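Cross-posted from the bioinformatics board.
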Amino acid sequence: MITPRPRLLMCPPDAYDLRYEINAWMSLRNRPDVSRAREQWRALHRVLTEQAGAEVELITQAPNAPDMVFTANAGLVAGARVFLSRFRHPERQVEEEPFRRWFQAHGFEVREPPPGIHFEGEGDALFAGDTLVAGYLKRSDIAAHRWLAAELGIPVLSLELVDPRWYHLDTAFFALTPDLIVHYPGAFDEYARRALRHRFETIEVAEEEAMRFACNSVVLGRHVVIPEGCPRLGAELERRGWRVHPVPMTEFLKSGGACKCLALHLGQVLPAA
Amino acid sequence: MTVETVHLEGHIIDSLTLSKVLDLIVQHGGSYEIVRFRVGTRRSDPSSADIAVSAENEDHLEAILHLIGQHGAERPAGNAELRPAPADGVFPEQFYSTTNLESFVRVGDSWIPVENIEMDCGIRVTGLGASPAAACVPVHRVKRGDLIVVGDRGVRVQPLPRREAESVFGFMGSGVSTERPKELVVAAVARAMQAVREQGRRILFVGGPAIVHTGAAPWLEAVIRAGWIDVLFAGNALAAHDIEQAMLGTSLGIDLRTGLPASHGHEHHLRAINAIRAAGGIRQAVEAGLLARGIMHACIVHGVPFVLAGSIRDDGPLPEVITDSVRAQDAMREHVRGVGIAIMAATTLHSVATGNLLPASVETVCVDSDADTVIKLVDRGTHQAHGLVTDCEFFIKELAARLPGVVLP
């Protein structure tokens, strides 16, 4: 059997910069080194394509959208459909149009959130088997979860994010398999923690590594691409049989993003309901 | 107390969102009642809950609703949708079907009360613009073009307050009291009747013919003569056997003094009915001196209005019996206005029929020797009913003894 190569969407950081402060990590006094950022992005691209076996599509960065490099926030892809984002902050709403055009040009059926509802794509919604795990309150609205549940016909686990440092679900959570997940419990309220423990086998990340965005990792089969500086999680994953690829992400951390934020899953096939 | 019902939908059980929302309401000093709950049947199905949130005042409620709104508890958005009735006696599709709970509709961005609430009707809105009003309307009374509320949006229902332990019926809860001291229940009914009177509201009595068969009629008559009943609902049978007893001394042919069947007694009620028909009606029979005592006599003499609703098995019937059920319902509707307590004894049919017309805020007591009657009444939506399982003779005699001013027979 030939497994198709996983496809990802990335955006080369041609206009990446830090020009506003819309999360706890951003500071205009601590802006990224742009050429270093390019090197880190290229390293990530190389690991994903050459070592982890992904096929990567590229989108050109719009000059007025410095955060467009974080393609995971563009939407959520399920089969041939894309559930487009509607960003909470006006600073990022400028990304919606270029992403919409790209998806349309590449044959996706584009769905938009119902009026007045915010949704930030894979930033706040990640599949774990036939469950969509979804974060809310900081960026996405819980009403978006109802919309996705109705559209996709699958269970949606709604988790409240409570710490401004982990403003997106993908900064504090990723799924390794349908039943095994990695998370930083401090990002979630008690109900969300209980719901996660009830539904999944969990690996907990220490705060120190969560601060280095250990949970902002890309899983491709048995490969996990994680930010550098997270040795404890790396060791735990290797012990469980994953191949771990650390990549330096310092310049993107300044904007509150890392490996996963820089790559959006395309062509995710939905499990049969 | 201010109440608003919110809607919560999604995978609210697995995500613990429902628990969270309920906890938040309580943590912030509110209280809640889950009005409706639907659990998804498959894992992928969402569940939904309608939650009535209560708070001390509007500001407090607003704060709680804002808080739980972030977790997906949605307020009914905007004004109620109104559509014209397509024909006389027909509601528009998707019409809002009422409960017997006090209700409000949102019209022109403000909440207005629904007058004359009763279950299983529609809501008609009039006076749009200047001074909008809303009233409950049964389907047969709707006129083509009347504006009727459709859908659930913009409708708010006030749940019944939980029964306070110190209220007259507090000790009964809301179940059927087969195992509570009956005299205490009767005493509570007597107190409740006095309280209703003090509030300037009316007392409705609904009765079946067993009141006459068991020999309790003179006691009910005494209660009416003492002025404790403002309106009587019954069928042909109660009136016919009461008149049979008044004129011939029997009920269904049984001599009430000896308990033995009278000769040709089975014909007695037919002879009584025939005599009243010959006189032209109960009132005429009283005025002619033909009917000189009994429950119906007391009603006529003391000006207590009554509605006798017919049924398919009636003999006669008596001229006052309304044989068109829809017209009978309308007559009963006119008389339930201002009623504060309804006492129902020994009749399933008329108890359920009356229960259908009463707002849930009316204290309702149902007395029957069969627990099923009470259960039926509650199952058909009269959730406020208190049930007392006992013989109506005991109940009426005991009640008569406890009400001030009743001259016992």
